[in-house]
Amino acid sequence: MGITQPSHQLLDALRTATLDTAYVSLGGRRTASVHEFYRYPARFSPGFAAAAIEAFTVPGDTVIDPFGGGGTTAIEAQRHGRHCVTADINSLATFLTTAKTSLYSDSSLAEVDAFAETVPSLRLKAIDQNDADWRAAGYWRNIESPETWRVRNFLANALRASADICSNDSEMLTRCALLRTGQWALDMRESIPTVGEFREQLCQDLLSMAEVARLHRIHVLETWGQPMRPSVVESGLPESASDPAFREVGPPALVLTSPPYPGVYVNYHRWKVRGRRESPAPYWLANRLDGHGLSHYTMSARNSIDLYFDKLDAAMNALATLVSPDTWLVQVVGFSDVHSHLSRYLNVMESAGFIEARFGELAVDAPDGRLWRRVPSRRWWVSAKDMEGVARNTSREVVLIHKLR
Ligand SMILES: C[S@@+](CC[C@H](N)C(=O)[O-])C[C@H]1O[C@@H](n2cnc3c(N)ncnc32)[C@H](O)[C@@H]1O
Fold first, then answer.
1. For a substitution probing ligand 1, which of 48, 63, 88, 345 has the most ligand atoms within 8 Å of its CB?
2. 0.85 surpassed by pTM
3. Among candidate residues 166, 198, 223, the one where a domain is terminated
4. DSSP letters along 171-217, please?
5. What pLDDT score does 26 carry?
6. 398 shares a domain with 348
């Protein structure tokens, strides 16, 4: 299966979707699809993922995303009738992808609704031993201040209360709602909402997420005729390349992905509470372990760009073992220093055995024959200081398309 040569029409649609930045700017508080269950940093737009899947695959094909992040590729593959295997080194990312792509039964969703009904009467309570364990392990760092402790205690109490009502799947969706509302309340904002405001928002998020999850299940069942879900691999390249989930599906028709960018330090794993104070609280809410620094998720520490390219090299060589000469590899990449990093990036691709494909339909007016786009506003995931860097260096991203030689 797969597509030998994408049509002009589908490439035009891919170009339009790539250049459309409305989605991210809009992506605030609405809950129109499972994509909005959590704002994972540096995610690409659903429209871009959908257009790439339609241009390079046909229904029934397999799409993989080895740097899957918040699950954009996985959701769009699932919605378009394509099999999908996705992986990420970040346990928060794999939790979110699983929570967003699960097909919740009506009884699970009824449990989430029932929990939402109890939220207006939830009060702050003293913390228990389980909370004390998370605190002792450091997951409450920077959410213990006079401004934040009430929201934190409310989250702890809500987790406890939901455990009384919810079973496995509904507990996952409830945790995802707590992550969503917690992110709204604590991440990248100066003024922390009151407990009353938080309670109201949580209730709203639980109810709207349960409804959106129900519509998602109906859409997937109509598309597939059966409850199909992506496989989520809980580890990163190069190790994940040997995971049975990748091996079992055989070579994919499309790899659709966006690795960390060279020299761009995105905070995938922390909330920034009241300025630059980093909190690992998302892992507490997801019931996952973190324990890594930023460089673990960005493939290198600041000022060690050589290490980044060594890791990219290992990752791309491992990825090459998963694909066939018919597989398209479509990736979005940005650079802190376009001039030197783009050529190094392309050298890594070439040495891993990939050759670049360029399409005139995508690169209208672009002197280098590639599709470039402006990075939409991402103020919510970078610090003010990093924002200067974004404005100066990383305001553009490129879509790179390759095939195995
Ligand atoms: C730019 S984000 C991907 C965002 C994704 N396209 C989305 O829409 O949400 C890059 C991801 O790569 C992950 N990552 C970093 N190193 C990795 C590795 N060695 N293997 C797999 N994933 C890795 C990070 O945790 C992060 O989630």
1. 88
2. yes
3. 223
4. HHHHHHHHHHHHHHHHBT-SSPPPHHHHHHHHHHHHHHHHHHHHHHH
5. 44
6. yes
